[in-house]
Amino acid sequence: MSWNDFDGGRAVAPETFVAAASTLLDSAVAAAGGGEATRAHFIAGLQASLSTSGPYATLRLDAGLADQGVRGELRENAIAVSEVVLDLVRSTPGTGVPGPLDIHSNCVGYAWIPPVVDLLIAGPGLHAARNLYNEWLWQLVLLRDALIPFTDPARVRVLADADGLTRLQDARDWFTVQVMTRRIAHAAIVRFAAEAVTGGYAEGAYGFQHGGAVVLPPVALDGDLLGPAYLLGRRDGTLVAEDTAYFVQGREDGESASTLSAPVRAVGDVEVVSLTDRLVPGPPGPGATRTLSLVVDFDGHEWTADLGRALRGHRYAARPAAAAAAGAAATVIGAWSGCAVLRQDGEVAVPEGGVIPTGGQRALTLALLGRIRPGNVVLYTGQEVGGQQILLDIRS
Fold first, then answer.
1. Which residue in 6, 101, 254, 363 has its CB near the most CB atoms, within 10 A?
2. Contact 233, 217 (CB under 8 A)
3. pTM, whole model, 2 decimals?
């Protein structure tokens, strides 16, 4: 007897998946002798497995290279996603539908908390209870991990089939190796997210479209400039005709960066302009790939930046604490307008000590990040130099 109705594969909301998996929990509780205390111990075991630290954690995020902003983003989101899954489990009533009496479960070696050990090895005849509990635990760990790349996990639809999310086993193993042992590349996060949602991926993609929704870093979807740089947001709607497309960075032009001439204005004279922006797809590429351009329109002109390069610049930009901006004025040599950067071809080098006030405008700042040579850009918000809000400060 199956514990779900996902035969053939379909997109499933976390709430739907947890409700289906509750059949496994109900059966495990019954096979272990029943009772609310048994259910509570099993849920406590899941909570320990979803922790990001400690002896029962299935994904350790409390170690590694501590100075990586990406690790902090993933750790905080993993904790938030775990709470989403646990809240769904606790709020999902028993289905009342007879579940499987036993099941073949992958033995993945997850550690059990002592009360679960006492329940599942207390006597003979508990083989089925162990299998059912193991499978329930395994499926919800897979669900939690599949949702970690997303800032809005409750809205994500994962691709499940008759075996739940077991198809993600190899992808999940690969992803956890990246997360726990290496410097975490943004492409690795996107790859695992795409495999969870679409069943495939494109090498080097920074986002994708599938099932009537676009998945990109939040800043590309009207998110905060100082918000997550590595996680992914989801927005209903489409950018391209294909149901599934993977967004990749445009080809580098190979030219050396041009350097801006002397500052065109004093810092306090820089004007903030009103603008509109949109994302424009390029032609279809190999392997269902597309490029995306960020087009901003102001002063009667359109300015374009490759979205992949802009997001790369966003990830590379430093983000000091607000207090650290107090000394910025002493280093300023002058200001350039956004137009001075955007009208250049290819990458642009801004002299050290230069600033580009943008008035906090997300699209303009993101477009500039797609043109400025990455590696020495500092993002500020809320600080002022010469009466202008600084978003881009060029430091060595």
1. 363
2. yes
3. 0.91
Full DSSP string of 102-165: --------PPPPHHHHHHHSSSTT-HHHHHHHHHHHHHHHHHHHHHTTBSSGGG--EEEBTTBT
Name the percent of the chain in helix, strand, coil, to the closest 5. 40, 20, 40
For 271, the 3-state DSSP assignment is coil
- Rounded Cα distance between 306 and 16, Å, is 37
Listing DSSP states for 58-103 in one string gives SS--SSS-TT-HHHHHHHHHHHHHHHHHHHHHHH-----S---S--
Both tokens of 21, joined, read 């998996």
Which among 44, 184, 208 has a CA at the least distance from the CA of 113? 44
Residue 8 exposure: Cα atoms within 13 Å on the Cβ side: 2
pLDDT digits (tens, 9 = 90+) for 178-221: 888 888 899 999 999 999 999 999 999 999 999 999 999 999 99
Q: pLDDT (tens digit, 9 = 90+) per residue, 254-293?
A: 556 677 766 655 555 445 567 899 999 999 999 999 999 9
Contact 263, 336 (CB under 8 A): yes
**Alpha carbon distance 264, 337 (integer Å):** 7
Phi, psi of 318 (to 5 degrees): -75, 155
Nearest to 232 by CA among 199, 202, 251, 205: 205
CA distances from 16 to 39, 51, 281, 296 (A): 20, 22, 33, 40
User: What does each C-alpha distance from 369 to 210, 279, 299, 363 come to in angstroms?
Assistant: 27, 15, 19, 10
Q: Is the pLDDT of residue 322 over 80?
A: no
Share of the chain above pLDDT 90, in %: 59
User: Pick from 305, 315, 293, 313: which is nearest to 346 by CA?
Assistant: 305
Asked if residues 24 and 103 have their Cβ atoms less than 8 Å apart, the reply is yes
What gap in Å lies between CA 315 and CA 379, rounded to an integer? 11
Tens digits of residue pLDDT in 91-117? 987 666 667 787 777 766 789 999 999
